[in-house]
Amino acid sequence: MTEDKRAAGSTDAVHVEHWCQAPGCKRWGCFGYDKGKGQSDWWCGDHRPDRMPGY
Ligand SMILES: [Zn+2]
């Protein structure tokens, strides 16, 4: 077990807490978008991008 969940390469980090990426928004990011390179963006229903492929 490692205590540093933010370490690069940890795919489990997305399962911890993911809030909306929009500045000032404190809503829960229930919509996740894979940016590649093992990173994901999370958005609430109001801020989620609508031009992402596959959605
Ligand atoms: Zn938001």
Strand order of the largest sheet: 1-2
Overall domain count:
1
Please report the total strand number as a whole number: 2
Average pLDDT across residues? 76
Q: pLDDT under 50 segments (min length 5)? A: none
User: Compute the gyration radius: what is it?
Assistant: 12 Å
Mass-distribution shape: globular
What ligand molecules are bound, each kind once? Answer: zinc ion
Which band does the percent of strand residues land in?
Answer: 15-25%
Major β-sheet annotation: 2 strands, antiparallel
Straight-line N-to-C gap = 35 Å
Number of helices: 0
Order of helices and strands: EE
Measured as a percent range, the helix fraction is under 10%
The structure class reads mainly beta
Describe the overall structure.
- The chain is an all-beta fold and 55 residues long.
- The protein has one domain.
- Helices cover 0% and strands 20% of the residues.
- The protein contains no helices and 2 strands.
- Strand 1 and strand 2 form a beta hairpin.
- The mean pLDDT is 76.
- The structure holds zinc ion (ZN).
- Zinc ion is lined by residues 20, 22, 25, 27, 43-44, 46-47.
